[in-house]
Amino acid sequence: MTTLHWDNGSAYDFFVSLHILHRPDDYGLRKAWAKGVRARLGQPERETLEQIMPMMTAPLHFLQTIDQPKDSATVLANLGALSPVERVERLTLGHDSPPEIVARLHAIREQGSWQEEDVKLLLEAVPQHYSHRMKRQEITQTLSIWANAEEFGEAFL
Predict the structure, then answer these.
(1) Coil, strand, or helix at residue 68?
(2) DSSP assignment of 88-151, as one string?
């Protein structure tokens, strides 16, 4: 029998809002308005979010593991307790991430670089497993994040 567990907290809203602010067209919002909201962040923080957002949605698998209150401060504190590499993993990989994608991203992280064949793999695999397509530029950004996971995970906070 299936059991539902209800969870709540503004941490979910925090990540959904970030997603919407980076994909305003998908939600009927004006691009100029969303850009204005994002412009309130400092340039380094804004650029970091712009890089990770194509591959990040609300990390439900991570949010379910943190204690109440599940607000943005608690989430950021929990993320801060993780190593930078773990941060990247928790924000970009879910419990249902396809094993071939996870293995490839881990290999890229270990090597510190990616190849054209990695781009091709993700261009083919992402639409098969996820409801959205990623553009080539988003794929290369994703691969660069994983190749520099330590540095990027540090910049995220």
Answers:
(1) coil
(2) HHHHH--TT--HHHHHHHHHHHHHT---HHHHHHHHHHHHHHSSS---HHHHHHHHHHHHTHHH
Q: What is the pTM of this model?
A: 0.81
Segment 87-140, tens digit of pLDDT? 999 998 888 888 888 999 999 999 999 999 999 988 887 766 666 677 888 889
Crossing angle of helices 43-52 and 136-147, in 10° steps, is 110
Q: Which residue has the tokens 């379910």?
A: 64
Q: Are 116 and 129 in contact (CB under 8 A)?
A: no
Determine the angle formed by the axes of helices 149-156 and 136-147, rounding to 10 degrees. 100
CA distance 157 to 80: 7
